[in-house]
Amino acid sequence: MEWLELKIPPVLVGSVTALCVWLAGDIPTLSWSVTPSLELLAAVMATAGLVVAASGVVSFYRARTSINPHAPHKATCLITTGMYAWTRNPMYLGMFFVLLGWTLLQGGLVALLLVFLFIPYMNRFQIIPEERVLRTLFGEQFEIYQRGVRRWM
Questions:
Q1: In angstroms, rounded to a whole number, what is the distance separating the alpha carbons of residues 64 and 130?
Q2: Looking at the domain assignment, is residue 153 inside a domain?
Q3: 143 occurs within a structural domain
Q4: DSSP category for residue 28
Q5: Which helix (H) or strand (E) holds 93?
Q6: If phi over 0 gives left and psi between -120 and 50 gives alpha, with beta otherwise, what is residue 43?
Q7: How far is CA 143 from the centre of its chain?
Q8: How big, in percent rounded to 5, are the helix, strand and coil portions of the chain?
Q9: Prediction pTM value
Q10: One digit per residue, pLDDT tens: the chain, 153 residues?
């Protein structure tokens, strides 16, 4: 399934996941009630996700390097500061938190399962191929960074 590597834009993967979560929210079994405190938690998670993702985007623009998820070979530098000192993939982590907040509002375990499938999909078809390219571009510098900073959290 290498033909899927770096082919589907991560924003599209997140959007399709969000749509599937919304559709799965209509499945009556294995669901929970959405309370005001759960709504607050969902808002906090989604807001945190937007902040984390935006910080990743801002770091790329400040460094004047490519943000194109289909062309990691166009990266001109390895960003290791800011949010990238905590996670190697703040944009994808941010998307996950937004999706998780959305899922809490949908109130179902099937929807929750769909969100947790986002991680292995992103690992296999986006992150691992990106890491291969970054290892080629930045060699030991990337390997040291990879050992010191987790992929997700």
A1: 18
A2: no
A3: yes
A4: -
A5: helix 90-106
A6: alpha
A7: 21
A8: 70, 0, 25
A9: 0.94
A10: 788 899 999 999 999 999 999 998 777 777 888 899 999 999 999 999 999 999 999 999 999 999 999 999 999 999 999 999 999 999 999 999 999 999 999 988 999 999 999 999 999 999 999 999 999 999 999 999 999 999 999
Q: CA-to-CA distance for 151 and 141, rounded, in angstroms? A: 16
3-state secondary structure of 108: strand
Enter the tokens of residue 90. 């703040």
Sign of the alpha-carbon torsion through 117, 122, 123, 129: positive
The count of domains in the chain is 1
Distance of CA 98 to the CA centre of its chain: 9
Tokens of 57: 């985007």
Is residue 8 situated within a structural domain?
no
